[in-house]
Amino acid sequence: MTGRLQDKRAIILGAAAEGNLGQVTARQFAAEGAKVLVAGRHEGPLKALADEIGGAWALCDITDEAQLAAMVGACVDAFGGIDLAVNCTGWGLLTPFLDNTREELEKMCALQFVGPFQFFQAALREMADGGSIVQVSSATAKIMMDDHSAYMGTKAGIDQVIRTIANEFGHRGIRANSVAPGFTASPMTERAARNPAVVGAFEKEYPLGRVGTLEDTAEAITWLCTDGCFITGEVMQVNGGVTLRRNPTNAEIVAAAKAAKAAREAG
After folding, report:
1. What is the rounded radius of gyration, in angstroms, for the C-alpha atoms of the chain?
2. Phi-psi region of 263 (alpha: psi -120 to 50; beta: other; left: phi over 0)
3. What is the rounded CA–CA span in Å between residue 78 and residue 56?
4. pLDDT score of 263 more than 90
5. CA dihedral 120, 124, 125, 129 (to 10 degrees)
6. How many helices (H) and strands (E) does the chain have?
7. Does position 229 have pLDDT exceeding 80, yes or no?
8. I need a labelling partner for 243 at 20 to 30 A (CA). Which of 64, 99, 141, 182 fits?
């Protein structure tokens, strides 16, 4: 029995950190039969992952248009074309609104708006009919989280760009969607994820009773890239229903952490 992505040719950008979403997704794609090029800014993890899954790799900074074009060219050279393009990059900046500097805003826009925009441009210039684009967004593009405005705004903005891609390229059978995880234990959230009190503050807002995993998000990305998917131009909320409720406030997170510390010291 063949996999759900058998012989699909894929780029996964943002796979250069050990155990991050890009790496988890690349492994799942390969297990489903895809030929995968993994890309990012660090050679060692990319080469090791490519060797592990029998794929290819390319160095690429998403803020560099020439590197994006070269990465897509490397996929075409390695596999003869491109069917799937997934962007897993991001920067989880947490800064109060009035404290965001111009430098931070420009960096955030480069990483989470201009870069993804140009990645998808480069991919679409070579993508075969019937292909699929997936952008990793966030539940916070829909619901609030304290001190996260630059991150949230750029994620919401590129979600709208995904809708325009879906509209413009649908006649070629190309689908474009976003996936929106909530709080997830990952390299980006490593410090918070090690604190059970912080995780618990988030967890109680999730109707399904737990926060997400990288595997949850990778499964959604995989399904959106299958031929059986008849969805385009949407943001798939892969977050256990947290958007039906809310994220905890900073004050609630701090209070939960302090209460847990006090309980440990008393016990």
Report:
1. 19
2. alpha
3. 7
4. no
5. 170
6. 10, 7
7. yes
8. 99
On whether the CB atoms of residues 62 and 38 are closer than 8 A, the answer is no
For residues 198-202, average pLDDT: 94
- The domains of the chain are located at 9-185+209-244
What tokens appear for 247 in the block? 């994220």
Distances (CA, A) of 255 to 12, 75, 184, 266: 38, 48, 20, 16
Tokens of 102: 């111009």
Mean residue pLDDT of the chain comes to: 96
Fold adopted by 9-185+209-244: Rossmann fold (3.40.50)
Q: Can you tell me the mean pLDDT for 189-205?
A: 89
Q: Is the pLDDT of residue 92 over 70?
A: yes
Q: Which residues pair with 116 in a beta bridge?
A: none
Q: Distance between CA 133 and CA 131 in Å, rounded? A: 7
Q: Convert 196-239 into a string of H (helix), E (strand) and C (coil).
A: HHHHHHHHCCCCCCCCECHHHHHHHHHHHCCCCCCCCCCEECCC
User: In angstroms, how far apart are the furthest CA atoms of the chain?
Assistant: 64
